[in-house]
Write a structure and sequence with these properties.
There is one protein chain. The protein has 385 residues and is α/β, with parallel strands linked by helices. The chain folds into two domains: 257 residues, Aminopeptidase; 116 residues, Alpha-Beta Plaits (2-Layer Sandwich). Helices cover 32% and strands 27% of the residues. The protein is built from ten helices and 16 strands. It has an eight-stranded mixed β-sheet with strand order 1-2-4-3-5-16-6-15, with helices on both faces. The chain has a four-stranded antiparallel β-sheet with strand order 10-12-8-13, with helices on one face. Strands 7-14 form a two-stranded antiparallel ribbon. The protein is elongated and about 80 Å long. It starts with 7 loop residues before the first helix and ends with a helix. The mean pLDDT is 97. The structure holds zinc ion (ZN) (2 copies). One zinc ion binds next to loops.
Length: 385
């Protein structure tokens, strides 16, 4: 028997297009989660948990007393990007659209629910998690710390992300780090303002700001011996004083994104960036306050789970692409791999696909059945092991 029967593939594609037309931003996935919950109810899971870490929904399928609990996660939030596409399923919400393919990821998980209904497993417990708020890095942590999540107790966690720039449906794998850790660093600098005619009477942060803008990005290279792998610091925003031509500024804000492939390298990068900022503050007699936002742990893949996926792809005849270096972007699935044995793999979205977060991107429907197959056979193998 096929994994998807009758009109199920059509239903899934219709679901994908409905989600694309009705995108919701991170933390606001109310209708999305309702729609997905309705869809998976037809597969009669043993339990449905709603309101997980916000609008998260988990469907729990119990197939036997024996065997592990495998959690499969899909994200479902859209982005504050105005869609330029003109196809029939284009976003109906101004300024919001699915530009990361989370509409596709959720539809794949809905497809996995149908596959489990059509061909039940003989062992284990499968949890299909529709996770909110991935784009801001909040969702995974919120779900995991939710009281209701305690009953799930996954032994393994699996997820995928579609990847433009790779052959359609190719499965992209890497052991160890797969996606970078990243942290938004915010530095508030306080000096003293004065009349622009008398800068000598104030203490402008301009010198400290320009030095910090120059030197923070240089940390990974200058301190390279302290990092075991990739590290990057990118200045993403700076503000000095106000637009007031009569005033010598007394404050500034500087923001940087810090990235590393390993969580302990992130600790080093944060420490070095703080050390630099504090020493510049001392030199220029400024007060500084440092805070952090949008923190993503690194996504670190379990080799054994990857080997299972390799085996499954070989058996199914799905193409595998092994990558040598982790991706520099971050995924909040890193919260799962930090807590459970887990793996995030990529699935090619096409060499010519517009990039993720580009305003003309759209999830390629052709890869959906491939993803359902790989997920299904992987969790089946894990459950029987
Ligand atoms: Zn994204
Ligand atoms: Zn994404």
């Amino acid at each position: 028997m096929e994994l998807l029967i009758n009109n199920q593939l059509k239903e899934l594609l219709a679901l994908r297009k409905w989600l694309h037309k009705n995108p919701e931003l991170s933390g606001k996935e109310k209708n999305t989660s309702q729609k997905l919950e309705e869809f998976i109810r037809q597969t009669s899971p043993d339990k449905i948990i709603t309101g997980l870490g916000g609008y998260g929904v988990a469907a729990v399928y119990v197939f036997g007393e024996k065997g592990p609990t495998v959690l499969v996660r899909a994200d479902m939030d859209a982005l504050p990007i105005d869609e330029v596409n003109t196809f029939a399923h284009k976003s109906e919400v101004e300024g919001v659209s699915h530009k990361c393919g989370h509409d596709g990821h959720s539809s794949i998980l809905a497809g996995l629910a149908l596959a489990l209904k059509n061909k039940p497993l003989s062992n284990g417990r499968i949890v299909l998690l529709f996770q909110p708020e991935e784009e801001t890095g909040q969702g995974a942590a919120k779900v995991i710390s939710d009281e209701a999540f305690k009953m799930i107790k996954p032994d393994y966690a699996i997820a995928l992300h579609n990847l433009p720039g790779f052959e359609k449906a190719a499965i992209v794998l890497k052991d160890g780090p797969f996606a970078a850790a990243s942290t938004g660093m915010i530095v508030n600098i306080k000096g003293a303002s004065s009349h622009a005619a008398h800068p000598e009477q104030g203490n402008s942060p301009v010198k400290m700001l320009s030095q910090a803008m120059q030197e923070i990005p240089e940390i990974p290279e200058k301190k390279s011996s302290k990092f075991k792998d990739f590290a990057l610091a990118t200045i993403i925003h700076a503000k000095l004083g106000e637009v007031a031509f009569g005033t010598n500024p007394g404050k500034a804000v500087l923001m940087a994104t810090l990235r590393t492939f390993y969580n302990d390298d992130m600790k080093v990068l944060v420490k070095e960036a703080e050390r630099l900022v504090k020493s510049l503050a001392e030199e220029h007699k400024m007060k500084v306050e440092i805070s952090y936002t949008e923190e993503f742990p690194a996504t670190i893949n379990d080799k054994k789970l990857n080997d299972t996926i390799r085996q499954v792809c070989d058996e199914l005849g799905e193409e595998i692409i092994e990558i040598d270096e982790a991706f520099r972007w971050s995924e909040d699935f890193g919260n799962f791999t930090s807590n459970f044995k887990g793996v995030l793999f990529g699935i090619g979205a096409g060499i010519d696909s517009p990039g993720l977060h580009n305003n003309d991107y759209d999830f390629p429907d052709e890869i959906l059945p491939h993803a359902v197959q790989v997920f299904y056979h992987t969790i089946k193998k894990i459950s029987n092991a």
